[in-house]
Amino acid sequence: MKDLKFNRHRRLRQSENLRAMVRENFLRTDDLIYPLFVVEGDNVKNPVASMPGVYQISLDYLKEELDELNRLGIYSIILFGVPAEKDALGKSAYDANGIVQQAARLVKEYYPEMVVVADTCLCQYTDHGHCGIVEGGKILNDPTLDLLAKTAVSQAEAGADIIAPSNMMDGFVAAIRKGLDEAGFIDVPIMSYAVKFSSSFYGPFRDAAHSSPQFGDRRTYQMDPANRKEALREAQSDMEEGADFLIVKPALSYLDIIRDVKNEFNAPVVAYNVSGEYSMIKAAAANGWVDEKAMVMEKLTSMKRAGADLIITYAAKDAAAWIKGE
Questions:
Q1: Which pLDDT score is estimated for 219?
Q2: Which residues, in sequence order, are CB contacts of 6 under 8 Å at separation 6+?
Q3: Is 111 helix (H, G, I), strand (E, B) or coil?
Q4: 126 φ, ψ to 5°?
Q5: What is the pLDDT of residues 116-141, one digit of tens each?
């Protein structure tokens, strides 16, 4: 044995402080973006049954939610609206007094420095649940772009700092960039859902946002989970059209895509840790099968290691509390 030569990697693992000294990736509260589901009405705080700890809240509960986020050091949110009324064109998505627009104005009133990301889509607002105009059972790409641009401009007018279009229509970044620029919002960035797979992990979100399609599915405009090169083509198009951030959604089953996008493009990459990923751990923890804190922190750190600069996650409050040692 005395002549045997090999590397002793364990030398750097002998204590917690030594392990911390050589740790390569860190999760910070600044990395986290917390999703908020805002609904019309008063005194509404509806628990989302499939997402423990997540609620639909009316605007009178918004200050309470923001106070907690601010205390935890979470300074970025993404707003999803759940309107009282829906129609074929999703008109409340671009109404100046739509629920997201009202929420954005209130956030800026309560916490002017809070970064407000506005989800820009039509599916929550249409009676058919699809992300665009429907005619004869087909989702029309180009006519939808005008409505998405109108929605983005109305959100920017309400105070949104970042526009996050999630619809997956071809050309949506170009249309929104043009609309924002023409309306004078040249400094409002676009956080594009550049790589959005047609995933089975979205189920709980659709409960929260009331956005399930009333017919068919979204596979004609969301990506096939089997494809990798297509993800880079999608991201390339969005960069060329003016995207400032690139979202990969979902995150956990697509860490390879996050790394590909990070390697290929010089833009901040955002991992969307989606509802199904969140709810699986919550359910397992509730049954005593897993250590929730350890699993959540490992999962989020894996997204940073894969290349994510930011993470949209429903676990943001839990993670922030753990980071702070609470």
A1: 61
A2: none
A3: coil
A4: -95, 145
A5: 999 998 878 887 766 777 777 787 88
For residue 211, is it within any domain? yes
Mention every residue, 6+ apart, whose C-beta is less than 8 A from residue 44: 56, 57, 58, 61
Q: Supply the pTM of this predicted model.
A: 0.92
CATH number of residue 76's parent domain: 3.20.20.70
Taking CA 202 as the corner, what is the angle to CA 198 and CA 203, rounded to the nearest 5 degrees?
A: 125
Q: How many CB atoms lie within 10 A of CB 8?
A: 6
Cα(250)–Cα(200) distance, integer angstroms: 10
Q: Which one-letter amino acid corresponds to residue 144?
A: T
Give residue-wise pLDDT tens across range 227-270: 999 999 999 999 999 999 999 999 999 999 999 999 999 999 99
Give me the number of domains the chain comprises: 1
Residues involved in catalysis: 196, 249
Residues of the domain holding 123: 25-323
Q: Where are the beta strands (DSSP E) in the chain?
A: 32-39, 45-47, 55-58, 76-82, 115-120, 133-135, 138-140, 162-165, 191-196, 245-249, 269-273, 310-313
Sign of the Cα torsion 273, 278, 280, 284 reads: positive
Residue positions forming the annotated binding site for 5-aminolevulinate: 206, 218, 275, 314
Q: Which two tokens stand for residue 285?
A: 């923890």
Residues tagged in the binding site annotation for Zn(2+): 121, 123, 131
Q: What is the mean pLDDT of the segment spanning 20-29?
A: 93
Tens of pLDDT, residue by residue over 173-222, are 999 999 999 999 999 999 999 999 988 888 776 665 455 555 445 566 67
In a domain, 19, yes or no: no
